[in-house]
Amino acid sequence: MSAVNHLPADVWTALKDARSFETRRSVSAIPASVRAAFAKAVGDESFAMAEPGGEWQVTDVTEKPELPRRRLRGVAQSKSLCILFYELGGRAESDHVAVFRLKDGGAELAWQAVLDWKSKTDRVAADPGALLAAIEAGRVYGGPTIYH
Fold first, then answer.
1. Does pTM top 0.85 for this prediction?
2. Domain annotation covers residue 56
């Protein structure tokens, strides 16, 4: 667990039981409360994320400003947590994960991280088990706030 900063104990424990998560690959699978909490955390007026494999702004050269800067890779949800795996465009394409606690019909950001990969074929899979393995291998750089 020392490879990352600020990983809450409840998130660590939940990742160890990856079977408690249901993983999907669709923006529509993201709860409305998580969408709102994500938009707030990144400073956006509303939630915007492309579907897996969909068109998005990969680079910092904005040719189509209507496209989102982020593209979903997967969403994993348990009774108490929702994990978003997504790509972020810009000067360099990067993979990110944001974990939200679900409670009382709402969601709050619990932890976020940037996933380290050496090549596109070496990417971390978008599921809780793979995230745990990446954390244990020191391939995750996390903290308490979202890197936009």
1. yes
2. yes
